[in-house]
Fold this sequence. Notes:
Layout: H1 20-29, E1 44-49, H2 54-63, E2 68-74, H3 78-93, E3 101-103, H4 106-110, E4 117-120, H5 124-136, E5 140-144, H6 153-163, E6 168-171, H7 178-188, E7 195-203, H8 224-228, H9 259-271, E8 279-285, E9 298-303, E10 310-315, E11 340-346, E12 349-354, E13 358-363, E14 368-373, H10 378-388, H11 398-416, E15 419-421, H12 423-430, H13 434-449, E16 459-461, E17 465-468, E18 473-474, H14 478-482
Parallel strand pairs: 1-2, 1-4, 2-3, 4-5, 5-6, 7-10
Antiparallel strand pairs: 7-11, 8-9, 8-16, 8-17, 9-10, 11-12, 12-13, 13-14, 15-16, 17-18
Helix pairs in contact: 1-3, 2-3, 5-6, 6-11, 9-11, 12-13
Amino acid sequence: MSARAGRQGRSAHGGPSRRGFVQGTLAALASPRVPHLARPTDELRVAVVGLNGRGAEHITALAKLPGVRIVALCDVDDHLLAREARKLRARELGPGPHSPGLHVDFRRVLEREDVDAVTLATPDHWHALQAIWACQAGKDVFVESPVTHAFAEGARVVTAAQKFARIVQSGYPARSSPALGAALEWVRAGSLGPFELVRALCYEPRPSLGQTRDNKKVPQLIDYDLWCGPGPLLPLRRARLHHDWRWLFAYGEGELGGGAAHALDLARWALGAEGLPATVLSVGGRFGYEDDGETPNTQLVYYGFEPVPILLEIRGLPASRAAQSGDWSVGMDDTLGVRVGAVLHCAHGTLRIHLDSLAIACDDEGKEIRRWEGAGDPFASWIEALKSRRPEDLTSGIEAGARSSGLVHLASAAHRAGESHGRDEVVQQLANLATLTATGQRMLAHLDQNGVDLLQARFVMSPQLVLDPEHGRFVGDERANGLLAASYREPYVLPVV
């Protein structure tokens, strides 16, 4: 089926839905609909959905695996469809009947009988709906992290996978690394003594997005109604449609949904924490510039797991104001050498984990004792589980992915339900939790080194919110509870499964 299938003739913004030359390009690239053929037992046919950035990496990873054929590509942007189709054909397929089918509307992918599984690298607000739709259509799923856009979506995605007997892998690649698994087994055996604190770290360079003063025109190559999907159909007011959505709460979770999601998954994996924390507290804000972003670029989140808490630190500014004039990617802070990953503080040393393939054990004087190196392949493990039809063969099944993504959403809800405070109020409230005092002071020092006027700065801080573990809700804070669920736009409504 060609990429034109299932599309209305005119776009949501009134003009023709696509330029004529793009129609011709896609028509030439897309393969015609052919009668369904029985699937050979040694071949798995996959569709890749969402082709910008991570989706292109999906294609590269899958194309290397034996017994896997990419039979369809899907994206709301015709330019990306044409680009990735050309690259895929040049890489391995060549012209002819095996050229991938191209689609703008994900629902057309699900109608294809020659698609066994889908990989989802779409924006966060689409993840849960597309995963559930795919399960309902009998397709197996690989969904990028965070696997949901709201806390309440996690249980629905897990239920859909179980109800429709689908193999659903979540995109937390660290869990596919045998090296990291061995390091965690070693430290859990007490090699460094009992855990005292687990620190999740995400120090990623995030310069200003710039400020867009007026609404921008949606490019005619993009079906904007489909891009917004279950999210609100908002005017386009950001420089880059395909990238800057992450920093808007309507579609993403900011850094919480980026590197921090992986750091939190590592921390939760290390602890073996399967339930909810007893409490959550967040303090942070967006400092150093004014731009189109809404989400924090500096944040400290306390998760009150028992017996050991998880402490998340997010920094988007570099180490100092001087570093802002250089390459931010080399000017970022670190904690004990880790920028994105986790540090396990134990009674007799630390385990320092770098995503996604390095762990270093150090004694209590900081001297290296042992190291583990080597990445895994989450796509290969997913494919093996598709063949065995055993969800337990997944390295990061949807249950684990939903739990780790849930930590992202708890922190986001706590932040958005927080109130404005000055520096002195923040210091006073953090002093009530000994674990937070020193880390809070480090956060303030980091901002000061970046030229942030701490006397004028306003921090968004939540109280220490208590969780009801049975119902997955905050106790006595309905504003925060309201942020644990999402609203949906017809016809892109999350099904009840």
